[in-house]
Design goal:
With 250 residues, the chain is mostly helical. The protein has one domain (14-249). Helix content is 68%, strand content 0%. The protein contains ten helices and no strands.
């Protein structure tokens, strides 16, 4: 008699993994364009990114459900390497990472790790690694690069709010993402005028205007619709990264 042991498939947060990979690509590309790649620094940074990726499934999914002491320890292991950026003096741009990190941890400790706020903060945190990874590769972020990071993080917050807003069981609406992006764009467009980075914000701005009239996804076919939105979000994220790299170069 053959006995088959059924095991539950491991859920992989493909959206978070995609954000990490594309953000790493943006950091790597930016470093190469700005001053060339330092082999040792790039290898060490890549190793850290790999550690973050390999532990992401357990750290994130466990923290938002039923975390154990080992999960908190693994989370600390992932965060500690970044603390060296606090010395000799903290960089002001680290606030781009510290704010979403604080929000995510607070939501997780409150037992709301699977809520919209935690998901949005988590996405912002992952995309904010652009500057830390760039600094670890030996690049001192200029004002243009800091603006690039703000656009990158702001864009992913926009995407995360939009996705959460489309879910029928969330209280937030898709147009919340439009409100966020259009407010951010009106502020950044002026600041980035000389660097032409504002050009990268045009396509998301058009989508933000369209989202003003969008509603929730029907519960029927929810999984398929969310999968389609996820694929489109990944494609749009890659396009945004390419646009930013082109604008950094030229």
């Amino acid at each position: 008699m053959n006995m088959q042991v059924k095991t539950r498939p491991i859920h992989v947060d493909s959206g978070a993994i995609s954000v990490i990979i594309v953000t790493y690509g943006l950091s790597l590309g930016s470093a190469a364009l700005l001053s060339g790649l330092n082999l040792i620094r790039t290898l060490l940074t890549t190793l850290l990114v790999a550690i973050n990726l390999l532990s992401l499934v357990r750290v994130h999914l466990r923290l938002v459900s039923k975390p154990k002491p080992m999960d908190y320890a693994l989370f600390v292991v992932n965060v500690v390497p970044y603390t060296y950026l606090l010395f000799p003096t903290p960089r002001p741009w680290l606030l781009l990472s510290l704010i979403p990190l604080l929000i995510f941890v607070i939501e997780a400790l409150r037992g709301k790790g699977r809520g919209a706020v935690a998901n949005i903060a988590g996405t912002a945190l992952l995309s904010s690694t652009y500057l830390p990874w760039l600094a670890m590769m030996g690049i001192t972020p200029s004002l243009t690069i800091i603006y690039t990071a703000i656009i990158w993080v702001g864009y992913h917050v926009f995407s995360a709010i939009y996705v959460e807003g489309k879910l029928p069981f969330r209280a937030i609406k898709p147009w919340f993402s439009s409100l966020w992006w259009l407010t951010l764009t009106s502020f950044l467009a002026y600041l980035t005028m000389s660097s032409k980075l504002y050009l990268a914000m045009m396509e998301p701005t058009a989508r933000a205007v369209i989202a003003l009239r969008e509603g929730k996804i029907n519960r029927n076919g929810l999984r398929e619709n969310m999968r389609r939105i996820g694929i489109m979000s990944l494609i749009e994220s890659i396009i945004m990264a390419v646009m930013l790299l082109l604008l950094i170069k030229y």
